[in-house]
């Protein structure tokens, strides 16, 4: 499609505006976190560390950070392990009910978080497990498995299907082949899945809010401050949260994309 | 050679069962329990197992519920239309006018917000859109405004766009980039104007992907409570806000479950209808 210069520039500017819209809140949050005004506007006030100092001298924020990190690490490990097994099963086996297997694996992100939160709250309360840190870990693992599975499945797609049989022919058992062929080959995607699922868990607030009880995570603290009033502390906490999750997502993407560009056969 | 053996060895089951057990126990289990819960009784703020339809009849006979239901449906529908239209020109640009490398970078950046705190982004919008916020301060330089943007439908839509736009652009770009460019060239060579080419050639070819993107927008905005609450003012509440209000105050989990089931049924109907339409063979 050929087109004139005006159209091309209009489209370019339009796309730039879309990107600005998407990244404006993230950038604004960083800028406001160093801004002295309680109600930021333009022109900006003076530079200050005040909101960071306030936020980080709050012991609630620190205990929430501990819970968040514990939950993110545990659910990332669990979800990546389960996601790996599901991706490997999908890659290698055909069996009765495989379609249902895949639906079960990929369905959770399509259920609104509030609904899943309510259902989990009810379900865990029968076992007397609601309001505990472990209930957040359980629920976050459910939400993270599909992402872990998708990332690892992409990598398995690039694996030469003869690689495993070759190892068996050379005398390796299935478990040995898994350990010395499949796992090393998928390692970048396993690390990517760990990062991505940790980011998902670290940012999730609805389910954590419903099931956490007194063990609040960082997003739950943000939610509670947000319900109260406009408080620039959120920008300070939020900027730290952004840095953590953006780093995790970027690491994951670099690991996934770097390998897609130059496929290798180990 | 892909070794698709349907064996049930210990090795095969060891990889198959973890996901089935975990998601069965902690995903399907809770959802089925929620259906049962919708028939339970609440006495003295405690839930008791029962089989009675009171929660259903009480919830569904209230005008309040149906107002909220149609409001949520309307807001989500509006979000789908706006997101689809806003995303489309940018997706066309990314799909047709840039190099593969630039497209990969664009997708790279679009994935980032999807995995970063939605809550903090909404708070940033709250500050930006406020009566004395950045936007109104900008307007006042030109001597216009201030406009009330918070606690309006406009605010809700900004929130929904924040939630849906990155994903919509990604999905639309993929589906547009996959269509056969020669068909577009052919239409152009045959004298078809640019806009007409887009609506009679490009859109029908990319139909499936465009509809899938729209379905995701619908599901995301139909279930979201943050945008309508913190940017839209929550008066009247949407269904997800109703679930929170009902379950958090007074422990009325069974009635919240009724609302949740109505939501799931609605989303299933919308999604299946749309997907069925998307995959229907062209005449």
Overall description:
- The complex is a heterodimer of chains A (266) and B (283).
- Chain A has 266 residues and is mostly helical.
- Chain A has a single domain (58-261), classed as Orthogonal Bundle (MetI-like fold), CATH 1.10.3720.10.
- Helix content of chain A is 76%, strand content 0%.
- In chain A, α1 (5-33) crosses α11 and α3 (59-92) packs parallel to α6 (133-157).
- With 283 residues, chain B is mainly α.
- Chain B has 2 domains: 1-37, no CATH class; 53-279, MetI-like fold (Orthogonal Bundle), CATH 1.10.3720.10.
- Chain B has helices at residues 10-37, 54-60, 63-97, 100-114, 118-129, 134-141, 153-177, 181-189, 194-205, 207-223, 226-231, 239-248, 253-279; strands spanning 41-43, 46-48.
- In chain B, α3 crosses α7, α5 packs across α7 and α10 packs antiparallel against α13.
- The longest helix of chain B has 35 residues, at 63-97.
- The radius of gyration of chain B is 23 Å and the shape is globular.
- Chain B starts with 9 loop residues before the first helix and ends with a helix.
- The mean pLDDT of chain B is 90.
- Classes of the chains: A mainly alpha (266), B mainly alpha (283).
């Amino acid at each position: 499609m050929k087109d004139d210069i005006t159209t091309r520039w209009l489209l370019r500017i339009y796309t730039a505006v879309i990107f600005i819209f998407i990244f404006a809140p993230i950038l604004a949050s960083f800028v406001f976190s160093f801004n002295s005004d309680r109600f930021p506007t333009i022109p900006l006030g003076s530079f200050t560390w005040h909101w960071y100092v306030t936020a980080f001298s709050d012991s609630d924020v620190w205990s929430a950070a501990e819970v968040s990190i514990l939950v993110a690490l545990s659910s990332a490990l669990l979800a990546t392990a389960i996601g790996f097994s599901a991706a490997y099963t999908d890659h290698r086996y055909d069996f009765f009910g495989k379609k249902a297997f895949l639906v079960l694996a990929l369905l959770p992100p399509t259920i609104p978080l509030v609904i899943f939160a309510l259902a989990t709250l009810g379900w865990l309360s029968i076992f007397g497990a609601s309001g505990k840190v472990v209930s957040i870990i359980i629920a976050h693992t459910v939400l993270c498995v599909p992402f872990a599975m998708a990332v690892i499945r992409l990598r398995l797609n690039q694996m030469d299907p003869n690689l495993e049989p070759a190892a068996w022919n050379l005398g390796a058992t299935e478990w040995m082949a898994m350990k010395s062929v499949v796992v090393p080959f998928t390692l970048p995607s396993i690390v990517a899945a760990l990062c991505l699922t940790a980011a998902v868990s670290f940012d999730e607030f609805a389910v954590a809010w419903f099931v956490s009880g007194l063990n609040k995570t960082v997003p739950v603290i943000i939610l509670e401050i947000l319900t109260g009033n406009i408080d620039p502390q959120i920008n300070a906490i939020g900027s730290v949260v952004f840095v953590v999750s953006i780093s995790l997502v970027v690491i994951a993407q670099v690991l996934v994309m770097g390998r897609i560009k130059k496929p290798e056969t180990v | 050679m892909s070794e698709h053996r349907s064996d049930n060895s210990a090795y095969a089951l060891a990889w198959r069962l973890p996901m089935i057990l975990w998601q069965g126990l902690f995903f399907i289990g809770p959802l089925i329990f929620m259906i049962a819960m919708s028939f339970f009784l609440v006495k003295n703020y405690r839930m008791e197992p029962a089989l009675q339809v009171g929660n259903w009849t009480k919830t569904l006979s209230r005008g309040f519920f149906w107002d909220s239901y149609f409001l949520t449906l309307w807001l989500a529908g509006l979000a789908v239309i706006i997101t689809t239209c806003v995303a489309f020109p940018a997706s066309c640009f990314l799909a047709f006018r840039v190099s593969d490398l630039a497209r990969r970078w664009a997708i790279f950046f679009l994935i980032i917000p999807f995995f970063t705190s939605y809550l903090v982004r909404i708070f940033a919008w709250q500050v930006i859109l406020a009566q004395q916020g950045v936007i109104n301060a900008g307007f006042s330089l030109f001597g216009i405004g201030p406009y009330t943007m918070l606690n309006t439908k406009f605010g809700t839509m900004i929130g929904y766009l924040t939630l849906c736009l990155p994903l919509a652009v990604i999905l639309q770009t993929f589906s547009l980039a996959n269509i056969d460019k020669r068909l577009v060239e052919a239409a152009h060579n045959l004298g078809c104007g640019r806009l007409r080419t887009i609506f009679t050639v490009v859109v029908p070819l990319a139909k499936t992907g465009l509809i899938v993107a729209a379905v995701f927008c619908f599901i995301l905005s139909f279930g979201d409570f943050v945008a309508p609450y913190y940017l839209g003012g929550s008066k009247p509440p949407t269904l997800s806000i109703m679930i929170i209000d009902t379950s958090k105050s007074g422990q009325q989990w069974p009635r919240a479950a009724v609302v949740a089931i109505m939501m799931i049924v609605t989303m299933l109907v919308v999604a299946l209808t749309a997907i069925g339409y998307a995959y229907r063979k062209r005449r």
